[in-house]
């Protein structure tokens, strides 16, 4: 039995990337999906482009926010309007492997998992592959506090098991905050150990600015998760050390041309 999957895609000035994102969904081996694109007051021609897909494919829906509100509000509006048993996320500059949905849903149903994610790889803005990312087979709330290993473009949860869970209304790191929120309801998030998605690293993204990313991480510990100072320092030290080691490894790999 093929259950409906609701795919939530926030969009802001995405005209340069959104076509590839939509095509990767249309090319899925599982075709029982709905794509809910929520536009956050774009100033380019992306809405006009998206509307062309809406007109030609009844599975695609476009919701336009009346004021620029950020990704959390956009994603929550998508979740609110979702009809599927499963909810998945794909940003407007990322793409999926053709069998991503089919494999991940089978993985969840076979093992009775509530919340899952997968491996993925990174590409630059020209589509050139720049790195592979793989993760532990499962993580709990405390594991995830140390470092967020769940990529938003691979996350999926089962609303039949845990209901609709919404993003905290923060401008940055709202995906990390949502995974922590879900992991207060379920014991583990489980990883399907296959590379099934492509993440675009953009020069203007928050993840590209390590100092700002660290600031938002600290704020999440203190203001969203309400951790005390000692716990916040403990988990932040894990986050910072992993970031330092990852940066050093990349530099060594570049020097060795591997």
Task: Draw up the topology in text.
Elements: E1 5-11, H1 18-26, E2 33-39, H2 46-56, E3 60-64, H3 71-80, E4 86-89, E5 95-96, H4 100-111, E6 115-123, E7 129-133, E8 138-139, H5 141-146, E9 156-158, H6 159-162, H7 174-182, E10 189-200, H8 210-224, H9 229-256
Helix pairs in contact: 8-9
Structure in words:
- This protein is an alpha/beta fold.
- The chain has one domain: Spore Coat Polysaccharide Biosynthesis Protein SpsA, Chain A, CATH 3.90.550.
- It has nine helices and ten strands.
- Strands 1, 2, 3, 4, 5, 6, 7, 8, 9 and 10 form a ten-stranded mixed sheet that branches.
- Helix 2 links the parallel strand 2 and strand 3.
- The C terminus is likely disordered.
Give a summary of the structure in a few sentences.
With 258 residues, the protein is α/β, with parallel strands linked by helices. The chain has helices at 18-26, 46-56, 71-80, 100-111, 141-146, 159-162, 174-182, 210-224, 229-256, and strands at 5-11, 33-39, 60-64, 86-89, 95-96, 115-123, 129-133, 138-139, 156-158, 189-200.
Uncertain runs with pLDDT below 50, 5 residues or more? 248-256
Q: What is the level-2 CATH architecture name?
A: Alpha-Beta Complex
* Fourth-tier CATH superfamily name: Spore Coat Polysaccharide Biosynthesis Protein SpsA, Chain A
CATH level 1 name: Alpha Beta
Mean of residue pLDDT values = 91
Q: Compute the gyration radius: what is it?
A: 18 Å
Q: Report on the biggest sheet.
A: 10 strands, mixed
Query: Please, how many domains?
Result: 1
């Amino acid at each position: 039995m093929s259950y409906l999957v609701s795919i939530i895609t926030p969009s802001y000035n995405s005209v340069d990337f959104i076509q590839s994102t939509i095509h990767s969904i249309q090319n899925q081996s599982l075709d029982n999906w709905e794509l809910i694109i929520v536009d956050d007051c774009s100033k380019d021609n992306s809405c006009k482009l998206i509307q062309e897909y809406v007109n030609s494919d009844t599975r695609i829906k476009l919701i336009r926010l009346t004021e620029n509100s950020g990704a959390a509000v956009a994603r929550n509006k998508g979740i609110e309007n979702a009809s599927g048993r499963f909810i998945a996320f794909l940003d407007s500059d990322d793409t999926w492997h053709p069998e991503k949905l089919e494999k991940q849903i089978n993985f969840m149903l076979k093992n009775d998992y509530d919340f899952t994610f997968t491996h993925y790889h990174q590409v630059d803005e020209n589509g050139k592959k720049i790195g592979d990312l793989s993760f532990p087979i499962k993580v709990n709330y405390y594991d995830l506090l140390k470092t967020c290993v769940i990529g938003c473009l691979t996350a999926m949860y089962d609303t039949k098991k845990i209901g609709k869970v919404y993003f905290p209304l923060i401008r940055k790191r709202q995906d990390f905050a949502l995974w922590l929120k879900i992991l207060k309801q379920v014991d583990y998030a489980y990883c399907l150990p296959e590379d099934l998605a492509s993440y675009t690293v953009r020069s203007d993204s928050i993840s590209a600015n390590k100092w700002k990313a660290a600031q938002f991480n600290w704020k999440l510990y203190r203001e969203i998760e309400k951790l005390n100072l000692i716990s916040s320092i403990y988990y932040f030290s894990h986050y910072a050390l992993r970031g330092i080691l990852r940066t050093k490894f990349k530099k060594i790999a570049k020097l060795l041309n591997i």
